[in-house]
C-alpha cells in the first residue's frame, strides 16, 4: 500500500503580507506625488514659456520679462525672509518649552493650540492682518522710522495705513509658526534620553544640556522644519495679497508705502483681468516660483544629508 504525500502551498504570515501591502501603497503614493509634480511642471512650461516673449506693454511698468519676474522674485524672497527671522526664534522657543520645560498638563494644551493655527485658512489671516494688525502697527512703524531711520530697512517715511511688507512678514510668520514648531517639537522629543541624562550627570545646566545634547541631535530636523516653513511663505497668496499694497519694485524699506510685490500675490491680484498674453506672463512667473522653490528644497535636503553624515561619525 503506497501513500502519497501532498505538498501544501506555503502561506505567508499575515505580518509579511501586511508589510508588502504597505510597501506597495507607500511606493504608489510616492509615484503619484512625482507624477503630480511632473504634470504641474509640464503645464507651467507649456503655458508659461510663451510669456517670456510678449510685447513690451504686457510687462508694464517694465519692458521685458526678466526685470519683471526679477522684481517679483525679490519681493517673494524678501517677505519670506522677514517671516523666517520673526518666526524661527519663537517656533524653536515654543518647541523647547513644550518638550523640555512645560509640565505635561500645560504642554499638551499649548501644543494643541499651536497646531490649531495650521488649520486656519490663509484668507482669514489676510483679513486679520489687513483689518486688525495693520492699524495696530502704524505707531510701531512710525517709531521705527523716527528712531531707526538710518537703517535702510526702516528708512521711511512710515506708511499711514500699516499695509507694508513688514506687516506681511508678521502675518506670514504667524502662518508658518505652527509648521516649524510642530516638527521641531517632535525632533526635540526624540533626543536620546541617555544623552540628556549624561549631560546633566556631568554637571550641565538644563540650557547647557539642550545646547550640547538636544540641538546637535536635532540640527537636521530644524533645517527641515525651517525649509518647510520657507516653502509655505514663498508660495503664500491670499494673505499677502490682502495685506500688502505692492508694486514691482526693488526696495529694502519695510515700512513705507512703496512695497515689493510677491509672485503669488501678483498672480492672485492680476489673474481675473488678465488678457491671454498677460495670462501667459503670469504662468511664466509661476514657473519661476516653482523652480526656485524646488531649488531651495533641494539645497535644504543637501544640508540635512550633510548634517546627518557629520552627526553619524
TrEMBL record:
NCBIfam families attached to this UniProt entry: phosphate_pstC
Function: Part of the binding-protein-dependent transport system for phosphate; probably responsible for the translocation of the substrate across the membrane.
Keyword Transmembrane helix recorded: yes
PROSITE patterns xref list: ABC_TM1
Assigned GO CC terms: plasma membrane
Family: Belongs to the binding-protein-dependent transport system permease family. CysTW subfamily.
Molecular function GO terms recorded: phosphate transmembrane transporter activity
CDD domains: TM_PBP2
InterPro entries xref list: MetI-like (IPR000515), MetI-like_sf (IPR035906), Phosphate_PstC (IPR011864), Phosphate_Transport_Permease (IPR051124)
Organism encoding this protein: Nocardioides flavescens
Location of the protein in the cell: Cell membrane
Annotated protein name in UniProt: Phosphate transport system permease protein
GO BP terms, alphabetized: phosphate ion transport
Positions of transmembrane segments: 21-46, 72-98, 110-130, 164-183, 221-244, 279-304
Domain ABC transmembrane type-1: 73-300
Keywords noted in UniProt: Cell membrane, Membrane, Phosphate transport, Transmembrane, Transmembrane helix, Transport
Membrane topology value: Multi-pass membrane protein
Gene3D superfamilies on file: MetI-like (1.10.3720.10)
Amino acid at each position: 500500500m503506497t501513500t502519497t504525500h501532498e505538498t501544501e502551498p506555503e502561506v505567508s504570515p499575515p505580518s509579511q503580507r501586511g508589510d508588502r501591502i504597505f510597501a506597495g501603497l507607500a511606493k504608489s503614493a510616492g509615484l503619484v506625488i512625482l507624477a503630480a509634480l511632473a504634470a504641474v511642471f509640464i503645464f507651467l512650461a507649456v503655458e508659461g514659456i510663451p510669456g517670456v516673449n510678449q510685447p513690451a506693454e504686457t510687462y508694464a511698468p517694465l519692458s521685458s520679462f526678466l526685470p519683471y519676474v526679477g522684481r517679483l522674485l525679490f519681493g517673494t524672497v524678501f517677505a519670506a525672509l522677514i517671516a523666517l527671522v520673526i518666526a524661527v526664534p519663537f517656533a524653536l522657543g515654543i518647541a523647547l518649552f513644550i518638550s523640555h520645560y512645560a509640565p505635561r498638563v500645560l504642554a499638551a494644551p499649548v501644543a494643541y493650540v499651536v497646531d490649531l493655527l495650521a488649520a486656519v485658512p490663509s484668507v482669514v489671516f489676510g483679513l486679520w492682518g489687513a483689518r486688525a494688525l495693520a492699524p495696530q502697527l502704524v505707531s510701531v512703524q512710525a517709531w521705527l522710522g523716527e528712531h531707526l531711520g538710518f537703517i535702510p530697512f526702516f528708512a521711511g517715511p512710515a506708511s499711514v495705513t500699516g499695509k507694508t511688507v513688514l506687516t506681511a512678514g508678521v502675518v506670514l510668520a504667524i502662518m508658518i509658526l505652527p509648521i516649524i514648531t510642530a516638527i521641531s517639537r517632535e525632533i526635540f522629543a526624540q533626543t536620546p534620553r541617555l544623552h540628556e541624562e549624561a549631560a546633566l550627570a556631568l554637571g550641565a545646566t538644563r540650557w547647557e544640556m539642550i545646547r550640547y545634547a538636544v540641538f546637535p541631535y536635532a540640527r537636521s530636523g530644524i533645517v527641515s522644519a525651517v525649509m518647510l516653513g520657507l516653502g509655505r511663505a514663498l508660495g503664500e497668496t491670499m494673505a499677502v495679497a490682502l495685506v500688502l499694497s505692492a508694486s514691482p519694485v526693488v526696495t529694502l524699506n519695510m515700512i513705507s508705502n512703496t512695497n515689493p510685490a510677491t509672485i503669488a500675490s501678483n498672480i492672485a491680484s492680476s489673474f481675473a483681468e488678465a488678457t491671454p498674453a498677460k495670462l501667459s506672463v503670469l504662468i511664466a512667473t509661476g514657473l519661476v516660483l516653482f523652480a526656485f522653490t524646488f531649488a531651495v528644497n533641494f539645497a535644504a535636503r543637501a544640508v540635512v544629508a550633510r548634517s546627518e553624515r557629520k552627526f553619524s561619525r
